[in-house]
Specification:
- Pfam families: MCM_OB.
- The chain has seven helices and eleven strands.
- The protein has helices at about 1-15, 35-40, 40-50, 50-70, 245-250, 255-260, 270-280, and strands spanning about 20, 25-30, 80-85, 105-115, 120-130, 135-140, 160-165, 170-180, 195-200, 210-220, 235-245.
- It has three domains: about 1-85, mini-chromosome maintenance (MCM) complex, chain A, domain 1 (2-Layer Sandwich), CATH 3.30.1640.10; about 90-120 and about 170-255, Nucleic acid-binding proteins (OB fold (Dihydrolipoamide Acetyltransferase, E2P)); about 125-170.
- By secondary structure, the protein is an alpha+beta fold.
Amino acid sequence: FFKNRFSEFFKKANLFGKIFKSSSDVFRVPVSIDKLWNFDPFLAKNLLENPVFCFPIMTNSLNFAFKNFNSKKNEKKMILIPDLKGPFGKRTCLIRSLRAHFLGEIVCIRGIVVKRGERKIKIKRSVHYSNKSAKFFVKENNEFDEDLTFDLIDEGEGNILDLEYGLSKFINWQSILVEDFPDQNSSSKNPKTIIVVLENDLVDSCKIGDQIELCGIYKPLLQQISSLNFHFFPTIISALSLKNRFNSEEKISNNFDIYMMKNFSSLANSFEKLSSLVSPIILIFI
């Protein structure tokens, strides 16, 4: 049902003219939540409340619809990812306003990048082969994990399965630490932060000090639960789209300003103007 409805939405929305290149082999298509809501409120509601299930279906439907739209034989294969755009309503909140009822849903936050982790490679889907039974086994790895270790799968009776690197899927992976804006922390002494996980084309899309706006899935970090505190766990955000707010702002200079900057030295009183900015004249009235 969801696959058919998403495919129908992409056919009617005519979004393929707004495709922009995100990385060398990944392209993004802006998708407005308002347009999706006007098309089918039930579909939009399920995407916002259950993105773990709906977003992969939405991505597959987008690529399927684009394949039918662009039927050129010699066209290079393109990987499309939906780039979700707001408004997200009550899901747009501060980091300190994130609560338990947002778990598993899409949220939108704004903040400053205060720490950026190293770029790593993560195994998304591992394919294993058994020499004894001549069968393939597939394991999906969707958990948050920084360790680059490949689990050995035992088929039983000590038969270790071999990892097929060519058939397995690897993705780029990175974690960043996002903090609320300083003016939003005025009522709190300790700034609120949260770990955000970036994958695929979103890796290296921001640097420390950038003001960003991102939407993603608010998830529990279940792997850090121990037997002593299994009732409590930290949370992260798995980013679906990210926008640098500084790059999205309007330019404050026009063409005339740029022309004057380039030809400033040709002015007759350029030295006086420049020195007045460095050491303004102080008039003393007696």
